[in-house]
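Chapter summary example.
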Amino acid sequence: MSGVPTSFHLGPLVFHTYGFGLAIAAYVCFLYARRRLQNSDFNVQPFGKFALCLIVAGLIGARLANIATNWGYYSDHPARWIAVWQGGLASFGGIALALPVGLYLQRRWWPGSSLARFSDALVPALIAGWALGRVLGPQFMVDGGGHLTHQWFGLHYAGQVGRRVPVPLIQGVEDAILWLALLAVEHRGPHRRVGVVTGVAMIIWGLVRSLDERLLLGQESHSGSIGVQIAGVVLALCGAALIVHQLRAVRSTPDHLVDPHAPATP
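The structure predicted for these 266 residues follows.
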C-alpha cells in the first residue's frame, strides 16, 4: 500500500507486516472471546488450547484450499505450499477445517453445555477479530487490492499496477457493522434467541463475502472466485436453517425453561 512497507528487515530476518497484523487481530480476538465466554458462565480454563487448535486448523484449511484452487501455480513448486508469509489463504477453507475441529473440542472440553449458547458467545468475537484482521492483515500484503479504479478512494498496493479498490478496508468496515448488529440482536433477547446470533452472522457474512468476491474481486482473486461465491451462499442458507430450527425449538419450550428468570406457567 502507498507509503507502508509490506515487510521489513531486522538483520538477516524478514518480517511481513501482513503476518504481524493477523497476529495482533488473533490476540485481540482471543481476549475478547475468552471474556465473552466467561460472561456466559463457561469455564475458560481450556479456552487457550481450544483457540490454538482452531488457529492451526484454520491456517491449514485456508492454505490447502488456496493450493487446491490455484493448483497450476503450486503443482510444480512444492516449496511454495508452506510459504504462507507470501499470502495465499482462502477464508472458507479455514472455516471448513476449523469448524469440525471446533465442534469436536467443544463437546470434549465443555461436555453437556449448549452448543448454540457457546457459538453465540464466540461468534461476535470472531467477527470482531475478522474485522480487525482485514484492516491489519490483507491491507498490507502483496496484491491486497481489488479491481482497478480511478475513483478518489483507490489505493496503491504492492505487486499491483494502478489504483485499486481497497477491498480489505471495505471488508473491515462490513465486518465491524455486522459485529455491532450481532450485539444488538443479542441485547434484544439473549434468552429467547439462543442460536439466532450465530445464524444471523452466518447469513450476513456469507452473503456479503460472496458479493464482495463477485463485485470487488472477481477473476482477480487467487482463491477460487466461483467457489467462494458458492460457499458464501451455502453458509447463508445454513444460517437461515439454523435460525428456523432454533425458533421452532424455542416455541415448543416453556418460558421458564428458556429463561430462568421467567415465571413458570401454573
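To summarize the output: The mean pLDDT is 84.
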